[in-house]
Amino acid sequence: MNFSEKIIKEKLLEVIMTFPKVSIIIATFNSEKVLPRTLDAIKRQSYPSNKIEVLLIDGGSTDNTLSLADAYNCIVYPNPKTDPVNAKLIGFRKASGKYVITIDHDEVMENKDSILRKVISLEENSSCKVALCSGYKRPNKYPLLNQYISEFGDPFSLFIYRFSKGYNFFEKVLRKKFDIINENNDYLVISFNNIKTPVIFELCCMGTMVDREYFNTIPGAFEEGDVFTHLFYYMIESGSKNVIMVKDDPLTHYSVDSLKAYFPKIKWRIINNVHFEQQGNNGFSGREKLQPSIKYKKYLFPLYSYTLFFSLFDSVYYSITRKNGIFLLHWILCIYVASQIIYQYFLKIIHKRPQFTSYDGKKVIM
């Protein structure tokens, strides 16, 4: 049974005069092709529109992105560094809502009650400061590569965490790895009190709703990217160990649709982790400081990639379990990533550092 209309109406009556304000942060950069879907989905939300503010943090778009922002009554702030982490950090500083949702310009809230359900679940569970969606969903007739990217991000992350964020697997992974301390027809309350294996969670993505007022109490939360992107781990350390996952709340992800566009983004992540300390701390380099076990596991990745047996096994396993042939390319992606990591560390040894560029690699950032 899905989130019932009866329950929604009851909750509406209870809080109709006290709807908390919700801020939605979207990082944009030449987003005219994908942004309308994202903004239309926000317009369709059942949550009162006068209690929603949409902040677009733009990295210098030269297309019609800013015109779209004006047409949809969005608030726009510039993002000089263009990278999405800095954009979301700016958004959190500017947000005025009690709750904040971060959503990418190519992500669409499929359930029209997505915002309402997250707010209700958080209001009902005062110990929880985070409400997750049900996982990423591949759009109909969209390239198969989309599922690989949405579920695992990249082959290195798949190897380190084996943590699926796909709509058909996310809830199963949460149930398998962590304790469910409360459940009803509408959501799960997951306890991270006993984390036995490394976990990858970034609260500034995946349409996650967070209690901004709570995270304001964590030192440096909205000051530096290395704290901001790893707020989940700081939240656990501070004693708030329960998180909500709302059921039947998928996030449709219109990610890059070709390997030609995917490879530069993987390379960008590797370069930042190897050469640029501050940027690297926003990603894996920052996580390994908070999860010591992955610090050593990373050295096994080249072995996993180049011996082929292990990466080929995973390629076949995931292609069968996902019924998606694109996963057969996993071993090839592993070789590319492992080779890039080794090459970038070689450049670092000889003191030759690449330029710091925008996320798509097309713009040099000074």
TrEMBL record:
> Which CDD domains does its entry note?
Glyco_tranf_GTA_type (cd00761)
- Keyword Transferase set for record: yes
Residue spans crossing the bilayer: 299-320, 326-346
Q: Which residues form the Glycosyltransferase 2-like domain?
A: 23-144
Q: Which UniProt keywords apply?
A: Membrane, Transferase, Transmembrane, Transmembrane helix
Q: Which SUPFAM superfamilies match?
A: Nucleotide-diphospho-sugar transferases
Give the molecular function GO annotations: transferase activity
This chain belongs to the protein called: Glycosyltransferase family 2 protein
* Biological source species: Eisenbergiella porci
